[in-house]
Design brief:
Chain lengths: ~575, ~950
């Protein structure tokens, strides 16, 4: 009978490998499974005890057991997996058999290092998988002439050194974490103390406001009396009106100057934007599939085609505006003194028209028109805030009283806001034992390709271009969360592990895409450090960040200020 | 396969899918205004008008072309003569050659005497070549031109005719009518192909431009003769009108296939309007068509002007060797049966009308009579499919773009983590430094060699993009050399042509120039393309060429190439000249290290199959595009270029999980199996997809890998006789009329595997058409389907690929999953045997080192497996060569570990062992046999354990 080469090699390799120490278990079997391989006459499939095969079928490079337990040292059963396209012939006589491996993998003894399992699909594939099998035992059949020398000495040595480092680092990380917890507790205490202080201050402020309200009321009473007792003495209504009008005109003038400055700025911005868009239109790639870009180009073309002369500079208009902006005097605008000295018994409303009649008509129209036009424009575009109601003119005493009340009310509101903020802050989830309180606002960054990525804990994430250093907000902090991440355990199985995340949303928006957002996945580490940033899909980023804050342990070490809420 | 799950979970999944489906925004369509309709293409309109005029005149129409009998000579298989075209004022002389080839093909060439002699004047002081382009064959034809020694003039020819007998056993005859000129090609006395039967032969001869005094009407409509403007670009047309046109009729044929590339059904539709028909002719003008639409005769990236006509028991074909813009009209006419002659049925004739903007008429006619013979003869001319490196038939993972070398390594590691095999990872253009080819982006790919070395650890490969546009930038060494050596395409004024593509302003390398090929070769050497290693291969994209700001997104037709040919003359072969240059470059990047190149090309022409694989370009993540990929891949296969695939998952937009899963299950049946995605899409590597989809996708990919021995054998067959790797129904059953139009199921090589991928949303079954009365077995559970000429409903829940094995086959597999195909090299085989009605089965296996050309010197294993009279045997099909012994030695330990016999004879119930006899062994041995009885509709089967016969050995297993 012909001895197949693989079997032959098995025999040879087996005899050499175990020449010195007597073979106690078949190739690839870990000590914890050796009990299944004691009987030298028959073998019972581990998960299917009903199936018995001759012991000579163990490691004969043919898969007999539906759980692969007869081939601990070969790849013959590596196809028994949910990931394989199995047929009925793989489940002899039992179509419904769930085919899963009983063993976690091929056991590499790795003398001089630590033993480990390697997936069966890597046995005798011609590749020395030193990462799992430093002793090279995974390539025992030497297929295609593959020889894997034993490298456990050097690999083991390196690993031990690294492991020592890792342990040190873990110890350091835990220390760091404790410091963070202390810090977080202290900060939380500060906030709580602050709230107590603020509550007292608010009480005081409320009393003050009440007093001032009374003062104002008194002043107003006084005022009304004054107005009643001194009707038009010495100065007529026109005088009063002229005073009002002057104030109004000054105000309008100032507003005009202000609006004009804003207009010029806006014009420049529009110009700059138009230039950007023109360049964009000539340089964009029409074949690139970006509907957003195409839509933008189309809209730009439409926009450019419209005549937008109202926004253009006009020197005649500017000249007019220059004139109007000059302060009034005898030679320009209205000569107010003349009016202020006038005394006349006409009705107020008539006077208004009269006043307007004295103003050069183009100024009246112009001022009203332009101010309204620009103001509306700016207000609509959110450049200029909408004005509050103008305060009416009052006596000094009333004004002072009112101002005092206003300022007292403001500071009261301020205090109330502060306390609200602090209370909200206390309600905010800062993670277990509020540990992230200690990290809030701390920034770390990392170079990656053409960008530098920045992460400021509980604040924002950023992408900064190295060339030109323009920066892009990748999201503002929203919440702490968890994400299940798939990892491979020692047996090579995919398991999911929950990791703490920091969610950042609503960053700068993308062309034809969502607002940028980032999920920061936290891992235990000695330093706060960005390990990796990836764009998982258009403008949706993930960042892997190490921090001592998520290292296990530390919370019970006292010094923290845990509250019931945190344990939820 | 995945176990079934609780219903609630499926319901949840289903509603999720529906929800996702609702969120998809429909309606991405091609920009029609960017591409010409026939009416906008001068010569297309002229030739269609010519046809309309002829048809309006009906019987009164007479083609103005006559063969002058006095000029006719027949010598050594060539018939020569002069056609005379009579016009109002002149008689134009058109030399004709009809060559009768040893292969049984005939070649008809018509040229123009004045152009041949250079006796014409070009306008605008053009320096263009005065001849009609006659060099397409330099790029396309590699053999098969030996003329027939036996072809003879038929002495009994009728008056006014010249008749030539040729072909195998002189069974073919060309009947050449002198006036008007026409040729009928006959096989066994029956006419199968007719040239100029409709009188649409049209060769626009050269004429000077006559400036008529104002007011004087031209006799003909000259509006498109001298100048044409489209999309803001004016074509100067220095030679004036010069198109060639010809009608080709297939009497009695009602199906025509071929002339890729179109996103359309396999059986081509009529093009002159009417319900279900196209209004435009099928166009072939290689173009970068953005967001192409389905069910359309619009041109795409590649062109193979090779058409087959098929009817019950007969296939014939024509190959129109012309590199200029070409359109084909198809009309089918049905003749009513004569009511007086009993039993006569109606007959459909398919009339096709071909026209090209420039060049000669150069037509090959194939008389079959079977699809396989057509493939073989066509392949002799244009070459067979390259036998690719073995890795190339594995799974390719691509994305625009893997953004850093670390990203690549991470994706690589993830595949291993999830134990999903793959062979090749791809880099789209972002790996380059500012889109300068042969460079690496220094910040994102600082360590390209480290990345390739990492991939090489599991025998994986890297493919990077190299395009023909060269960035116009000072200091870029490729640009500087291109300029210094004068290797760029020029414009009509003779200046270096500048256009826009990915890098912005660019010049185009002119691969028609032999000196360019050697320069291009030098650029790919490891010391010039720094950071490239031997496991790096090339993707040639944008080689139509795509020019963003050019007319129809390509070059102006009056651009000039090497040899003073206008771009108009050579456009459709432009793509393969780049592929050719790259192929030469990859053959021997290091002295003494000769390897089979791997190249993916987007643009192609006949002949590309010798050098590259193709994919169907920028498709979309829709069910429609998934469905369209099957006829497109099948059509490419029968057109001689079977190494074809579509982007799995769809290039544009995000596929939902169901679509992506079904796409993998379909994609494993593309000869070229690559997933690709647009830069704006979400990442979708298979391991990222949530369960149960990830498991299902893994199973599909592993099924591809399990069947790689069968795939490689099918590739080998294609590489020696041109038979498609995946075959459509009509090709396998050319006598079964019911199956001629079926283009949604396919056969893998000669394995008897029949797959029908699910391409419809929410489908849970597949209706597989079975042509014969053999038993067909479900691949996974051996359920039996039987019944000829009808569709059988096969369950197709999401986790299942509808796949049957026909009775009578032996399929070689490798069942052990590995990280890459390279690592499966030493694994043992499983043979799956299904018996036919006579209890017999047949199969074959081809294996070689998958890398070098040693197979050309005998370094391979080629076996025939045969089961007959209870004996399974392996016989040698190979021929010995100097490398045979060496290769066999390396494969010595590779054996058959298992034989599965589906539906074995009942007597085997009693058997428990078989006798194994291997050549060279002194004694026979026994191997255990286990029999498993039938369960319901599932066939019984038997498994032979560990016969351990050598795969390269001759052996017998006696049952």
């Amino acid at each position: 009978m012909r001895l197949p080469q693989s079997l032959f090699l098995l025999a040879v390799a087996g005899s050499t490998a175990h020449a010195s120490d007597k073979p106690t278990r078949p190739r690839g079997v870990a000590p914890e499974f050796s009990k299944f391989y004691q009987d030298s006459a028959a073998f019972t499939c581990i998960s299917h005890p009903a199936i018995q095969i001759p012991f000579s079928s163990v490691n004969d490079d043919f898969c007999d057991c539906p759980d692969g337990s007869d081939e601990p040292g070969t790849s013959a059963c590596s196809h028994l997996s949910r990931n394989s396209p199995l047929t009925v012939a793989d489940r002899p006589g039992n179509d419904d058999l769930e085919l899963t491996l009983a063993l976690p993998g091929f056991y590499c003894k790795n003398k001089g290092h630590r033993p480990s399992y390697i997936p069966f699909q890597r046995i005798n594939d011609g590749i020395c998988d030193y990462e799992q099998c430093c002793d090279g035992s995974d390539e025992w059949a030497r297929v295609g002439g593959t020889k894997c020398e034993d490298r456990c000495r050097e690999i083991g040595k390196r690993w031990r050194k690294e492991e020592e480092q890792r342990q040190k680092s873990m110890t350091a990380a835990l220390k760091q974490k404790k410091a963070l917890l202390v810090d977080a507790g202290r900060q939380q205490k500060e906030v709580e103390d602050h709230i107590v202080r603020l509550e007292a201050e608010i009480k005081g402020a409320e009393v003050k406001v009440q007093n001032l309200e009374a003062d104002l009321k008194a002043a107003q009473e006084q005022e009304r009396k004054l107005v009643r007792t001194k009707p038009g003495k010495g100065q007529g209504k026109i005088h009063a009106l002229a005073g009002l009008a002057k104030g109004r005109v000054d105000e309008l003038r100032n507003a005009l100057v202000d609006v004009r400055r804003q207009r010029d700025e806006t014009r420049e911005r529009v110009k700059e934007l138009e230039d950007i868009l023109s360049t964009f239109k000539t340089e964009y790639n029409p074949n690139f599939n970006d509907e957003g870009v195409k839509r933008a180009v189309r809209s730009w073309e439409d926009y450019a085609a419209r005549d937008l002369s109202s926004g253009d500079a006009n020197s005649a208009e500017d000249h007019d505006l220059d004139e109007i902006s000059k302060a009034d005097s005898e030679s320009s605008g209205v000569h107010w003194e003349h009016w202020e000295n006038e005394d006349d018994g006409c009705g107020d409303s008539n006077i208004l028209y009269k006043l307007a009649a004295y103003l050069p008509p183009f100024i009246v129209n112009f001022i009203e028109d332009k101010v309204i036009f620009w103001r509306t424009l700016f207000e609509e575009h959110g450049i200029h805030p909408k004005p509050n109601e103008d305060p009416s003119s009052e006596s000094k005493a009333v004004t002072e009283a009112r101002d005092a009340l206003k300022s007292a009310e403001d500071s009261l509101n301020d205090l109330k806001n502060k306390i609200r903020d602090h209370q909200a802050d206390l309600e905010t989830d800062y993670g277990t034992a509020s540990i992230f309180r200690a990290l809030k606002g701390q920034c770390i960054s990392k170079d990656s390709g053409e960008y530098t990525y920045e992460h400021c804990f509980l604040d924002q994430t950023k992408q900064v271009q190295k060339k030109g250093s323009s920066s892009m907000n990748m999201g503002r902090f929203r919440s702490i969360g968890t994400k299940s991440v798939e990892e491979i355990n020692e047996a090579g199985e995919v398991i999911s592990v929950d990791k703490t995340t920091l969610e950042y949303t609503n960053g700068q928006s993308c062309w034809n895409g969502p607002n940028r957002s980032t999920t920061v996945i936290l891992e235990c580490g000695e330093q706060n450090e960005i390990l990796k940033t990836a764009e998982d899909e258009k403008c949706v980023y993930s960042m892997i960040v190490t921090t001592p804050a998520v290292c296990p342990g530390g919370e019970q070490a006292g010094d923290t200020a845990p509250r019931a809420k945190d344990e939820l | 396969m995945a176990r079934s799950r609780p219903a609630s979970r499926w319901t949840l999944l289903f509603s999720l899918v529906v929800l996702l489906g609702c969120m998809v925004i429909p309606g991405w369509t091609v920009k029609h205004e960017n591409f010409k309709t026939c009416a906008q293409s001068g010569f297309c309109r002229r030739n269609r008008d010519f046809a309309d005029n002829a048809s309006a005149k009906g019987e009164a129409w007479s083609s103005p072309y006559e063969l002058d009998p006095a000029t006719v000579h027949f010598k050594d298989g060539h018939l020569t003569g002069v056609l005379i075209k009579t016009t109002a004022n002149e008689k134009v002389l058109l030399p004709l050659t009809v060559s009768f080839l040893e292969s049984g093909a005939a070649r008809v060439v018509v040229d123009e005497e004045k152009r041949l002699k250079g006796d014409i004047e070009l306008r605008h002081d053009s320096k263009a070549n005065k001849k009609r382009y006659d060099e397409a064959e330099k790029w396309v034809i590699v053999g098969g031109l030996e003329v027939s020694k036996s072809a003879t003039l038929n002495a009994q020819a009728e008056t006014g005719f010249t008749q030539v007998l040729y072909g195998p056993g002189d069974k073919f005859q060309a009947v050449i009518r002198h006036a008007p000129f026409g040729v009928d090609f006959q096989r066994d006395g029956q006419t199968h192909v007719q040239l100029n039967h409709q009188g649409l032969l049209n060769l626009e001869h050269w004429r000077p431009k006559v400036d008529r005094p104002e007011g004087e009407e031209a006799g003909e409509d000259e509006s498109t003769w001298w100048e044409e403007t489209f999309g803001g670009n004016t074509d100067s047309k220095p030679r004036g009108p010069e198109s060639v046109g010809l009608d080709i009729t297939f009497p009695g044929y009602d199906h025509v296939f071929g002339i890729p590339e179109h996103a359309d059904s396999l059986s081509l539709k009529e093009t002159r309007g009417g319900s279900g028909n196209h209004k435009e002719p099928y166009r072939m003008y290689n173009s970068d068509v953005f967001e192409y639409e389905l069910n359309s005769p619009m041109t795409l990236y590649g062109a193979i002007p090779f058409m087959q006509a098929h009817r019950k028991s007969s296939t014939v074909g024509v190959f129109w060797l012309n590199a200029a813009e070409t359109w084909v009209d198809i009309v089918k006419s049905t003749t009513s049966p004569n009511p007086l002659s009993l039993g006569a049925s109606s007959k459909t004739n398919t009339q096709t009308h071909w026209f090209s903007e420039a060049g000669r008429i150069d037509l090959f006619v194939f008389l079959g009579p079977s699809p396989k013979e057509i493939s073989k003869t066509y392949g002799e001319l244009t070459g067979y499919t390259q036998l690719p490196q073995h890795f190339a038939i594995g799974y390719h993972q691509c994305r625009w773009n893997y953004v850093t070398d670390e990203d690549v390594k991470e994706v690589d590691a993830k595949f291993d983590k999830y134990q999903i095999p793959y062979d090749v990872i791809w880099l789209d253009l972002e790996y380059t430094d500012d889109r300068k080819y042969f460079t690496w982006e220094p910040l994102t790919f600082p360590n390209p060699t480290g990345m390739q070395e990492k991939l090489d650890e599991s025998e994986r490969k890297l493919v990077v993009l190299i395009d023909p546009h060269i960035k116009k930038e000072e200091g870029y060494f490729v640009q500087e050399e291109l300029n210094k050596k004068n290797f760029a395409v020029r414009n009509k004024d003779g200046d270096v042509y500048e256009g826009w593509c990915w890098p912005g302003a660019s010049n185009w390398v002119d691969c028609f120039n032999p000196a360019v090929i050697s320069w291009w070769n030098s650029l790919h050497k490891y010391d010039r393309f720094k950071g490239s290693l031997s496991n790096l291969f090339i993707w040639n994209d944008m080689n139509e060429p795509s020019v963003f700001n050019g007319p129809e997104t390509t070059m102006p037709k009056d651009n000039m190439h090497y040899g003073d040919w206008e771009h108009r003359d050579i456009h459709n072969v432009n793509g393969i000249t780049l592929v050719n240059a790259t192929y030469q470059a990859l053959l021997e990047r290091k002295k003494g290290e000769v390897r089979r190149p791997f190249i993916l090309t987007r643009s192609y022409y006949a002949g590309a199959q010798r050098m590259a694989a193709m994919w169907t370009g920028d498709n979309q993540a829709t069910w429609g595009h998934l469905a369209a990929s099957l006829p497109m891949v099948l059509n490419n296969g029968i057109s001689g270029f079977p190494f074809a695939g579509a982007d799995v998952g769809g290039f544009f937009h995000n596929p939902d999980k169901d679509l992506l899963t079904r796409w993998y299950q379909a994609g494993i049946w593309y000869p070229f199996f690559r997933a690709h995605a647009h830069i704006d899409t979400r990442r979708r590597e298979p391991y990222l997809i949530s369960e149960p989809h990830r498991t299902i996708i893994s199973q599909a990919i592993r099924l591809r890998y399990q069947l790689l021995p069968a795939w490689y054998t099918a590739f080998h067959e294609a590489s020696v006789n041109g038979i498609p790797i995946v075959r459509p129904q009509y090709y396998v059953y050319p006598d079964d009329e019911e199956g001629f139009a079926i283009d949604d199921q396919l056969y893998l090589g000669a394995t008897g595997l029949l797959a029908k991928p699910v391409v419809a949303e929410n489908a849970n079954t597949a209706d597989i058409y079975i042509s014969d009365d053999e038993k067909y077995y479900d691949y996974f559970d051996f359920t039996v389907y039987q019944g000829a000429g009808k569709r059988h409903t096969v369950p197709a829940p999401q986790e299942k690929v509808p796949l049957l094995i026909q009775g009578g086959h032996i399929i070689p597999r490798k069942d052990r999953p590995r990280r890459s195909s390279g690592l499966m090299r030493w694994d043992p085989y499983t043979l799956v045997v299904t018996l036919d009605k006579n209890g017999e089965a047949d199969g074959s296996l081809y294996v070689d080192d998958g890398e070098t050309f040693n197979y050309e010197r005998g370094g391979y294993i080629h076996r025939r497996f045969h089961f007959r009279e209870s004996v399974l045997s392996s016989e040698d099909l190979g021929a010995k060569g100097p490398k045979t012994a060496e290769y066999l030695k390396t494969m010595d330990g590779v054996t058959v570990e298992r034989v599965v016999i589906v539906d074995p004879p009942k007597e085997w119930r009693e058997k428990s062992s078989v006798t194994v006899v291997e050549d060279g062994a002194k004694t026979s041995s026994a191997a255990p046999l286990e029999y498993y009885k039938q369960q319901g509709k599932k066939a019984s089967y038997a498994v032979v354990k560990k016969p351990n016969v050598g795969i390269g050995k001759t052996w017998r297993i006696e049952f």
